[in-house]
Amino acid sequence: MPLFGSSFSPKKTPPRKWVSLSNLHFMDRSTREVELGLEYGTPSMNLAGQSLKFENGQWVSESGSFTGDRRELQRLRKRNQQLEEENNLLRLKVDILLDMLSETTAESHLMEKELEELKQHSRRRK
């Protein structure tokens, strides 16, 4: 039996209206960056001894020694182009050889058929 009568049951509180106590949503972006130090700078990373930073949607070398890599990149692109041309030529040669093989096979089958017909015709005469 409870000491003060019935058991304690508080009334349900009505839901609160959402009101932010922060004034961040009233500030524009530049004010927030100045006030709160939200200027992060450009993303950067160090990859295989090469320092890179992200600018205008592309990764750019910070040290400026990227020119050697550009020459290498141009050399690789040229080599890739040569290999693609060689690959296309080889595919063309394979297609031609397959056409020649199918033509020779068809001629061979025709000759075999004619030979069989001649053999049957010579057997009939005997």
Automatic annotation (TrEMBL):
GO biological process assignments: negative regulation of Wnt signaling pathway
InterPro entries referenced in this protein's UniProt entry, alphabetically: Chibby_fam
Pfam families reported in the protein's UniProt record: Chibby (PF14645)
Keyword Ribonucleoprotein: no
GO cellular component: nucleus
Entry keywords, A to Z: Coiled coil
Domain of life: Eukaryota
Coiled-coil regions listed: 66-121
Descriptive protein name: Protein chibby homolog 1
Organism of this sequence: Pipra filicauda
Organism lineage: Eukaryota, Metazoa, Chordata, Craniata, Vertebrata
Name of encoding gene: CBY1
